[in-house]
Amino acid sequence: MGASQTRTEKYQDLADKTGFSLEQIENLHKRFQRLSDNEETIRNQHPKEVGSCEEIGFEQFLMVMSHFRPPSLKTTEEEKEAMRKEKLRFLFNMHDTGNDGTITLVEYRKVVEELLSKSGDIEQETVKAMADAAMLEVASTNVPHMAPDEFYEGITFEHFEQILKGLEMETKMYIRFLDVETPTLSCGNSTS
Amino acid sequence: MQRCRYVHLWLLGSVLPICLISGVTSVNGDVALLHQESHLKPLSEFKSNLNQTEQDNGSRVITGISIVTFKWNHVKTPYLVALWILVAVLAKLVIESLPSFVTNVIPESALLIAFGWILGGIIWAADLQQTFSLTPRVFFYFLLPQIILDAGYSMPNKLFFTNLGGILLYAILGTVWCAATLGLSLWGCQAGGAMGALDIGLLQYLLFGSLIAAVDPVAVLAVFEQVHVNEVLFIMVFGESLLNDGVTVVLFNVFDAFVKLGGPGINAVEIIKGIISFFIVAFGGSLVGLAFGLLVALLSKYTKNIQIIEPGFIFVLGYLSYLTADMLSLSAILSVTFCGVSSQKYLNSNMAESSVNTVRYVMKVFANGSETIIFVFLGISAIDKTIWVWNTGFILLTLLFILVYRFIGTFIQTWWLNQYRLVPIALIDQLIMSYGGLRGAVAYGLAAMLDDQRIKEKKLMIGTTLIVVYFTVILQGLTMKPFVTWLKVKRAAVAEVTLVEKVQNKVFEHSLVAIEDISGQIGDNYLRGKWKIFEEKWMSRFLLTSEARKKQDYIFNVFHQLNLKDAVGYVDEGERRGSLEFVRNESAFIDFKKKFGDEFSEVMPDIMAAASDDPDAMRRNPVSSVSLQMHEKTMQGMRETEDIDAHHLLQQHLYKGRKQHLHRYSRNHFDINTDDNEVQEIFQRTMRNRLESFKSAKMGLAPAKTITKHTKKDQQQKMPNGKSTDTSKNYYANNEGFEFSEGASGLEASGGSFPFRVNYRAGAGIENPTFMPDQDPMAPTQIPPWQAEDEPDGSTVSPSQRAQVRLPWTPTNLRRLAPLRISNQSTDSFAQADTPASQEKDKKWPPPPPPPSDK
């Protein structure tokens, strides 16, 4: 990791970029190293799965984490709005596995499926029905008067924003990053 | 039917407490809720009286002089109780019927208290003495439990537990702070000579402080329910008021014990014991409640066969948990709160839907009723000359300190809390929270419990408590709403449940848990995630029935709710149009009314026209009649036969899906029939049916019958068609087409688009010769009234859409049909639905739209 001098500089740099405090970065770095077995990067352990990224470095790791940084008391309304948009974008990209700018029905179904099917009590077709109903909801809110020969391709980011307008984001996309290191229990590599 | 049940339960419920109260009042004459001193007699006398009247009665019957005897003493107590309940409920009725500008401005609780004053004044004027008052026993045993149970049971659990830290802080520290500062300040003021000579020591002041410190859930709920503040603020105030009731009772008991011990008896050991007992009482009470809550949940798993009394369990066990905790001298209020909180989730999923509703209603009936009674009696209690020992200094200082310390306490605690909160509590919210510190009946009940042997100024304390209650409930309650509006407090959003949002919420939750996990933070989300896993793995398994587990999922619930709502909306829509037919037929067909509502407005007149064109439709003309009941009556005879016919047909000819999920009967179901065996079975059954009808046709069965049969089938068939255009989803038309031979042409038309079509085609190709001839001649004759109108206006409304409006479906066979409405279309329905192919198909599909005769 180089000399300590450059290291703090690097951290400072990251702190400016992400808004984390130095202590938080230190903590996250420790965590990162635990996850990566002291490597520079975390590798994708299931390379066959759909995922554009093969490995991520600490900086990227931090960037992802920074999406979940809570706003401070000083954040202005515009900043909050920007953060909100950013978070929505993050979420949108998470859904949009095809990376084509729309969440298609298939992609959406996959999301719903993964949310629900864990307990195993709900059948596949229910899941699909739900995804479809949700999709239709989106369609009907965004394109209220659809001509019969039109069809709804998928959720674009604008529509996505539109439907989640009423959603209170403040409580929902934030995590408190502690300054002190929490004793991480046995959630080691299995979680990566 | 359900209404009926509620009424029964309500009656039962209202009789029970009356009996209980009457039992109590007759045993403990001194704690009677409504003791009329002049009439009150010891039990023995009461009994002898009773015997006497009975004897009288007997002798009179023998002599035959009197048929009716007046047995007032026999029924006096329960009669009075019932009468007072009636009066209180009528008071509410009167208040609700006041002009809206009054009820909008003045909170209901304040009006009820005022009503109590008037009532008390009347009684006082008549009797010249105070005859009725709220006794602590009645209050704590018969009025309070149901309110708390209701509060706990309808607690928004998630919100409650996410803010639990803050709530506990306010409830425990806040209450202790208020009690201590008030007691000390008043003592200081007395020492400074501000209140004249009062015989109150420091301990007594602290006792008084502890009883008046707690914010009252009844009062808070009554006011805050009318002012829709944002949910975090609401849960903070509400949760605090609920929990600090427990705290204040505990505190009261501790100080009461100290007062009994007297000044010199108190040493460090006793104080430590007091503190320990405080925690034991509070947490012990919660644990007892938890145990009872889980017991109810467990019981509800097995109550399937006794659905009628199923809703009773929560009431009985909730009450028992209250009494048990009280028996063990633990906090009864906390106990019943947690009983409700812990059991609600499992109960709601375990019990039948009607039972869940029943519980909800009965809870509200009880809670609302007691609340009303409490407020009215708080008002009546004012008319008692004996409690009014006026001491301006004491009363005014109490009011002042209560307000000031509440504000100071809240601000300090919130400041501290905000260091740790993700979303800090805003200044305005803090103001409202402080201002919402309403005192209520709990304080009064506790004050009435004071021991006047040891506390010489009990009357002053009761009087002051009443004034504090009046002041906070009426003045603060009155100003709360303008205050909230003026300060622009964030209101609760009246959001509609949308599936997308719920799904997104869940996504948020999951991703938060994941991110916390990855980043190695053990935060709320991480813990919540672990708890969820634990709950899913263990709690649900033990406490939920297997069906309930399925329905447990949150998103699924919303989905279910939305479906229900759509269905209800649909029925409403039909009723609004004044057509029962529409309802009966349409209720089978649930769709997005938002999207297609406008289309229906176009469709409706056409239906009417078509119906009247039809020869058969004549008898259905009363369709447009406004009076549903009348309509039903006239229709009954005809419909009955038709229904039976239809039922029979449906049962005979429609394939019963294996997977009957009655709880999700709408919108779009896919893949149910993908099972190969099922397809086979459908095929075989259809073939058999066709063979039979073929035979019967050859045997020379009356052709008329075939035709009617046929039309009915056709109608069912059209519904899917309509659906396919409408929802762009359901294509189970395939099944039908498969079943009824004429579908073959439709299959040909759009066959290529779905894999399923191909599968079916083999079967569909075998056509029933008897059907086709029947049909073809029919086609030209029947089309005109309908299709002719149709063609000109073109594509706006396709025939099938109209057709769906006239399905002979009744709610009963809707159920049976539900699984059939599940389409086997799988992937991108939007795309397919709106492609020209399907349009074309729809036009070709119902080759001979049958006479809308059954309409």
From TrEMBL, chain A:
Transmembrane regions listed in the UniProt entry: none
GO terms classed as biological process: cell differentiation
Entry superkingdom: Eukaryota
Main location: other
SUPFAM superfamilies: EF-hand
Domain EF-hand, first and last residues per copy: 83-118
Protein name in UniProt: Calcineurin B homologous protein 3
Organism: Perca fluviatilis
Lineage: Eukaryota, Metazoa, Chordata, Craniata, Vertebrata
UniProtKB/TrEMBL annotation, chain B:
BP GO annotations: regulation of intracellular pH; sodium ion import across plasma membrane
First and last residue of the signal peptide: 1-26
Residue spans of biased composition, Polar residues class: 717-729, 822-838
Coiled coil start-end: none
UniProt name for this protein: Sodium/hydrogen exchanger
Reactions catalysed, as given in the entry: Na(+)(in) + H(+)(out) = Na(+)(out) + H(+)(in)
UniProt keyword list: Antiport, Cell membrane, Endosome, Ion transport, Membrane, Phosphoprotein, Signal, Sodium, Sodium transport, Transmembrane, Transmembrane helix, Transport
NCBIfam families according to UniProt: b_cpa1
Compartment(s) of residence: Apical cell membrane; Early endosome membrane; Recycling endosome membrane
Organism: Perca fluviatilis
